[in-house]
Amino acid sequence: MTKRKRIAEEAVFLAEQRGVDFADVRVIEETATSALVQDATADKVSERIEAGVAIRVLVDGAWGFVSLDTTSRRQVLVALDEAIELAGASKERVSDPAVLASFKPVVAEFATPFGRDPRTVGIPEKIKAIKAFEAAARTHGGAAVVNSLVSYADVAIAETIANTRGTLVEQECTRAVIGCRVAVAGGGVTQLGSEHRGIVGGFEVVEETTPEEFSVRAVDKALALLTAKPAPAGSFPVIFHPSITGLLTHEALGHNAEADAVWSGQSILAGKMGQKVAADCVTIIDDPTIAGKYGYYLYDSEGTPARRRVIIENGVLKEFLHSLETAGRFGVEPNGAGRADGHTARPIVRMRNTFMAPGQDSFEDMVKSIDNGIYLKDGHWGYVFTERGQFTCRAGQAVMIENGELGEPLRDVSVAGLTLEVLGDMEMVGSDFEMEMPGTCGKGGQGAPTDAGGPHVKVRSIVVGGRVA
Amino acid sequence: MALLELAQEIVDEARKAGADFADASVGNGRHISVEVESGSIRSTEVSRTESLAVRAFVKGGRGTISVSGIEALDVSPSQIARQAVEMAKAADPDPDFVSLPPFEEADEVEGLYDERLEAFTPSEAVEAAGRAVDEAKAVDSDAIVMADVSVAAGEGAIANSLGVAVSRKSSSIDHGVFVVIRRGADTGAFYDFDAGRNLSDVDLAPVAKNAAQGALAFLGARKVETRPMPVVLGPLSAYSFIKTLAAAANAESIQRKRSYLVGRLGEVIGSRHFTLVDNALVPRGLSSGVHDGEGARRREVTIYDEGRLANVLHNSYTAGKAGVPNTGHATRGGGIAPTNVFLRLGDKTAAEIISEVDEGLYINMGSLAIHPTSGDISTSVDFGYKIEKGRLAYPVANAMVAGDIFGLLEALDTVSSDYRSEPGAVMPTIRIAKLDVAGG
Which of A68, A118, B12, B225 is least enclosed, having the fewest CB within 10 Å? Predict the structure, then answer.
């Protein structure tokens, strides 16, 4: 029996003895390494080691939660009593008591697969590998490169989850990422290009990536921006590259489909289940079960088995993302979307790999259909105010479309829209597909690994934050 | 073992293992958090943290190990120190590294720790969060209230191989309220907050009321037309903006040539109305501290002086590389960050500044996201009003602003004389004479 399992089972047993309505305990150990090469020097190497326990109890509809940076038995037992006290302290102000879904206990062990365990790769080999990427960037960009930076990071997480309904899940996950950021200068302008790769897996993220598709590409992005003009301002028809489609599905739609936002009145999708909320050509899915993708897992932080969730099918709202609590409130089966950012955080409803399903249209036909518009690509980041459905996405690059043809390159630009308007304005959905947006999504002070993507998509109109002619 | 003694022991072990320089930070704390969703307490939480981080330098190469839960991990402080040294040896030498900071005597900054916050109970936090719901509902009974109350108290120690040995307690309290009000298909939303290092520096009662009144005022948002116009940044937006400007005065980014400020030190790049000072030594300030994340003494720095980029912010690495005094702006992670920033005030009130605008945009909250390398600006207006004939006419939906930082700083034509005040923060209103606004 692992130490983690012993602690989790004992704490759950004692919670039952104290008569709580529900309790779960997560015991987590985490190790991570990272290295940085900048301007030909790998002068920064780091390691992080963490261990801790999260205890959550439900008493009379009120939650109490305590986290500890220790697995000391004595302190865990004290923390259990403290969590029960916290629930008691808050119940007078709980006007909407928590209700949990009924579920079958889950007993499982699972470890994410990797090509090469990053814990067996020494720091010198990690440094050597990323130095090659960084050198390729400088060679490719020549004198234009003023700053080049390549980073590597991996993490291995071992987590044991137990609850008072009999669930006991022991799982391990390894994740590895590489990032490249290159600044180039010319003509009095300095611009930045970036690339990143991230997988649930191991050191193969480095070994299966070539400089041409990584650091050299980052240089090319930056060089292209040196001579690009600012985007125009106003409302335009646009084509989204799959990376922008991914940002939109995650930010504009996905956060609104998280059932905690729906229940608390913060989502524009509240009351719209089964209704038409997007054009017929729009199908949006969140699927944590795609092996290797950055948002991959088989059991969430509550031990619920993960599954594919079809949020919108042919324009109709079909399903929200649920934790045990929101599934209980909505009276549905939990679908494995309760995730916590380590032992210091409680599970909340999160997306993982969120994407739009491919359609029938070609990119060429989309371009031909636009007289004066913009092709937005190289998705960087986004955010949303779910209560209004107002979102923003950042494109690292763009291209003018004039008279049905791709025209001059444009600089990086942000676009903004209202979710339901934009989902309704989707006119063409490409037959292609790409999901390469590994990143960390923030919500409620917690980070969660996610991926996002889809096909090229044409939208009738969106506001482009460019320059007035 | 006391925190400082542990930090010193780790530094000694790292030196014995071959580090040229080493530092260590050790901390512990308790954090209470109460969250409200839709008017009901959703979670009451306590986190107890214990952290330790050591940095070892060998020929300028740096190895860092950070640990939490050391008791659970079956590793000793000396093992951690030795491992950091091994990592530093695996790193490349860096000839630009000169030294960690030496110990310097410094006057205490008053009011950064309040024992009442260390004794604050979860029940008190629950009560404060519950009152926020009542206050918001008193403004509008249909208000959907999200709120949080967060109280932290703890102790941190830093030691290094040049004699730095400092240990201090600190505390903070934060209260934020977000209110959504719906009228049919129309939605108004707004946020307000209060924060302090001392219980007596915060007044939690008005926060929810302000947020609810703001949400009501944001009902009826309209789209705007695309055209250049004056843009007025209200106190919260202006403070976010000047904090972003101060963060860009980062010596590391400039030395690495990836900043829009490369080659600009000493140049006038903004209007004469723009004087920006960073000062970590303000008593009771939210971002105040005697020493920075490396244990260097913090200093007041005038970043912009009447539009001239006068100084940039340094840590020990960038100061050593440039051969200039360290300003004491290191973060514990090795980066550089501003602290409390102050804009020199003007002589018109915010109301007078708005009254002079015939057609423009007023931004309540949210910064103008500046690209850190190109200086381009392309950003959404998350909470804003259209200004017409000198008055806030109506809230706007789905609007954006664009420009570049140099044009914006030249066009910054007024800073208000009145301001919102938070501990260590003076938040005036500012006006940019012209920015491109996109809508439709």
Answer: B225
